[in-house]
Write a structure and sequence with these properties.
Elements lengths: L10 E3 L1 H7 L11 E6 L3 E7 L19 H18 L9 E12 L8 E12 L2 E10 L2 E13 L1 H6 L1
Antiparallel strand pairs: 1-2, 2-3, 3-5, 4-7, 5-6, 6-7
Length: about 160
């Protein structure tokens, strides 16, 4: 049961669903699947980190480490997909623009072979602006965390700005 006392089935999105929700494409799509979507309140994104990721060639040769900024982006993509999954009021598919990153902390490196779980929880949304608390975990250990904000804009608005 959810907060309102009604039964709610937790949703999920596979890669093909995520491609419909977000404009990102490889190599910049940083979420493989999203599970446990609870309305627009929370979700968990999953990223399987492989040695074939293009950024490992230069970050760092002989000691591959996933860039922290990409962990933040993965958290933001998970939050963006959650928002888009529950918005139906737009004529055309809208875009989600990153507005802010606050309280970012990096706890330990993420390396090839790790599976990152991006846990996002809505703090609030006002109109088209959303704010989430996010954590990236590997094997249950926090590797990064931040608060991220985004705004949803219709495609026509994005072209004008």
């Amino acid at each position: 049961m959810n907060e309102s006392g009604t039964n709610s089935k937790l949703g999920r999105a596979e890669t093909t669903d995520i491609l419909k929700l977000l404009p990102h494409r490889y190599p910049f799509l940083l979420v493989d699947r999203i599970v446990d979507m609870d309305g627009d309140r929370s979700a968990t994104g999953i990223k399987n980190v492989t040695a074939n990721e293009p950024y490992f060639q230069g970050h760092f040769p002989g000691n591959p480490v996933m860039p922290g900024v990409l962990l933040i982006e993965g958290m933001a993509q998970t939050a963006g997909a959650l928002c888009m999954h529950h918005i139906e009021e737009f004529k055309e598919p809208p875009l989600v623009y990153f507005m802010a990153i606050d309280k970012a902390r990096f706890r330990r490196p993420v390396v090839p072979g790790d599976t990152v779980h991006y846990h996002v929880q809505k703090i609030r949304n006002r109109g088209r602006v959303w704010r989430f608390r996010a954590q990236a975990l590997v094997d249950g250990t926090i590797v990064a965390e931040a608060e991220v904000s985004a705004v949803i804009v219709e495609t026509a608005e994005a072209v004008e700005t």
